[in-house]
Amino acid sequence: MPELPEVEVTRRSVVKNITGARIESLRLGKPLRWPLGIDPLELAGQTVLGVRRRGKYLLVDLDDGLLLLHLGMSGSLAFWPTRTNPPPPPGPHDHFDLWTDRGLLRLHDPRRFGAAVWARHEQDPVAEKLLGHLGVEPLGPDFKPDAFHAGLKTRSAPIKQVLLAGELVVGVGNIYASETLFLAGIRPSTRAQKISRPRADRLFAAIIQVLNLAVEQGGSTLRNFSNAQGEAGHFQVHAHVYGRAGEPCRVCATPIRWLLQGQRSSYFCPKCQKP
DNA sequence: CTATGGACCTGAATGC
DNA sequence: TGCATTCAGGTCCATA
Prior knowledge:
It is a single chain. The chain is elongated. It is built from 6 helices and 10 strands. The protein folds into 2 domains: 4-131, N-terminal domain of MutM-like DNA repair proteins; 145-268, Orthogonal Bundle (Helicase, Ruva Protein, domain 3), CATH 1.10.8.50. It has helices at 4-18, 125-131, 145-153, 159-165, 174-184, 197-216; strands spanning 23-28, 48-54, 57-62, 66-70, 76-81, 94-100, 103-108, 115-119, 257-261, 264-268. It is of the alpha+beta class.
């Protein structure tokens, strides 16, 4: 479910509830992708200073250290203010329940590809391992067309896989990779280094446009997504190509094609998108 | 260093 | 209806 827009929407709905909250206890369910790295008892008494996002990671800043949360493929966060809306008991897929004096922050993740990891600082080796190699934030001030094009020039892999790798720019997942490449008129199989400056600029603009729109619309990754209040995304962004193999292109009516790249599905219009 | 495939895990959808 | 197979929004890691 979660690509950058969903994670950002989650962050926004969580941050206002939990900033300033005092941690009372932590209940863990089944193991997530990595061990937490701290005794849950040591978190009690700490205050949540804020929630930031880096790529698809959420960084929950505490008095002493931070929690790195990742939603993996199937994760979602929910917050229950204790008074107004008491939380149900944990279900079989609720693997991380952070109780605070303002309510419960719960990570629900059926597939358990997600993570909750504690790090002393952002420079802690544990955090560095997860965040250190990440590329620039596409919605931040450091995402610039010059550097983006220069980065593409250094990669011989297909552009779709360069986007997914997140080393040049973070946050573009499997759905939005296909969608941004459609808007830019570039086939997923095109080698990154072969993309001309004008086409790199189109892709650059498409990434910002698509991700921004999706954030504005409440994290509309085309399927079931709800924010931490349980409000559904708006689903107004309908896919141009993703998941539409065989169906007519919305622009030119040519059948959309499917392609497997690095074990992931890609979709493109053979007429609108050039090699 | 890059490129590739495998691994992690569960549930929903599809096919016989 | 039942059971097997396929696929799913991520990303780290071992291997070549």
